[in-house]
Amino acid sequence: MKGRSAYRRLLFVGLGASVVLVGLVVAYARLSTNQPILLTGLFHGPRYDSSTLLPDTSIVASVVHSISHRQTRPTTTRGQTGGSTATTTTGSTSTTTPTQTTSASKTVAFGIAAGGGLTDLDQPALNTYFQALKTLGVQWVRWDIDWGVVQPDDATHYNWAAIDRVAATAKQYGINSLAILTYTPAWAYPSGCTMSQCLPADPSAFATFAGAAAARYKDTIHTWEIWNEPNVAPNANVAVYSTVLRGSYSAIKAVDPSAMVLSGGLAPAADGGGNIAPATFVQALYADQDRAYFDALALHPYTYPVSVGYQAIWNSWLQMAIIQNSMQANGDGAKKIWITEFGSPTNGPGSLRQQNQLTFVYGSDYLSEQTQQTLLQDALAYYIQNSASFGPFFFYSLHDNGTNTNTPENFFGLLRYDWSQKPAYQTFQQTIAQYK
What are the φ/ψ torsions at residue 223 (nearest 5 degrees)? Predict the structure, then answer.
């Protein structure tokens, strides 16, 4: 359904005459005082503040903690791929004891994080999109199965039409699906929350939905991700998410025991402001369960405008050793970390910024296409060097959403809106070909 975009509410604090904006603004504002202002926006990228930079960092970011959320039925689609014609030149809810899942191969694998837009596309547009995936060479596509789309009205009626179309097309083109089960319909909102990214009031209802999806698609989809970025507000409640994950894991395994279940991809964040850092979240998840109910752990280690080695506490790449130690300490050392989103925008309403320029205004500023390529090269080098610890690497996204520069969200693609290639496309394509 159109408009199921990753919207979030952000808290901004003015620091003198200079303000760094965290998040993609829909209502764009300048701050002239030291008072906080609430705005609504989209967001990709790190959540951090000046106190989270490590002591050896020479630049202080004038950024504050953000409160992020996803609104109900907004008007911009995250990952939407429609628009022009391509001319590319190139269930049960009972608890199941989790089993140890070990990858049989240490070879790397690559995918595209498509977001929620695929279910909006008609069949010709889907064919165009999946042919572009084949040309790129990826083995995987990550896409949303939105609970609010499948069951918009109540717990007893299902509408699988859009999901059927995407699942069948992925199978037709030989692309593996990583399906994200996520987002709450209005009838299942918890008390006091009216946003679709709020975790549901009744986790067992979501588990029933998860089991129904796994049963319907057990011949086409065997890999599932439970929720999206549960470590950031308003989802940042480990106990509730743990219940959602446990119930969904059990429901999926009951109908497809060989399925792989991933935890929800964790956003880059520091503790505070309603958010929980990935390493902290993983530690708390283990503490809440006798053993975490996932077969692999998912991360979204966005770093732009800095590279993967940048010394900051919010940098998820630098938290991975802590996360892996937690997994090892809880008997899960053989489980992999999947990079289910990574990317950066190449246009927007703000200013073109350079790599490592921490006056970067999130939701407004952007990087050059060459810097997007450099950040991808750095991330791929780290991923390949440490591939024994990782599952597939997913780039967000394949194709720019549009040409309107009022939002950076339109410009995360490897391909421009006219389907011509950005420099990062060749980097990704050549890397994929090298490791096939």
Answer: -130, 125
Q: Is residue 54 in some structural domain?
A: no
Q: What's the CATH code of the domain at 384?
A: 3.20.20.80
Tokens linked to 1: 């359904």
Within 8 A by CB and 6+ apart from 320, the residues are 299, 301, 337, 389
Residue 138 lies in a domain: yes
pLDDT digits (tens, 9 = 90+) for 400-435: 999 999 999 999 999 999 999 999 999 999 999 999
Task: State pLDDT tens for residues 159-196.
Answer: 999 999 999 999 999 999 999 999 999 999 999 998 99
- Nearest CA-CA partner of 227 in 212, 217, 240: 240
- Give the chain's radius of gyration (CA, Å): 20
User: Rounded CA gap, 163 and 149, in Å?
Assistant: 9
Q: Which domain holds residue 212?
A: 78-434
In a domain, 17, yes or no: no
Helices (H) and strands (E) in the chain, counts: 9, 13
Element spanning 371, H or E: helix 369-385
What's the number of domains the chain is made of? 1
DSSP H helices in 235-368: 238-255, 278-288, 316-329
Close Cβ partners of 164 (under 8 Å, ≥ 6 residues apart)? none
Extract the tokens encoding 98: 């989790």
pTM of this prediction? 0.80
The bridge status of strand 336-339 relative to strand 7-12 is unpaired
What stretch of H or E contains 172? helix 161-172
Element (DSSP H or E) covering residue 122: none
Residue 341 neighbours by CB distance under 10 Å:
26
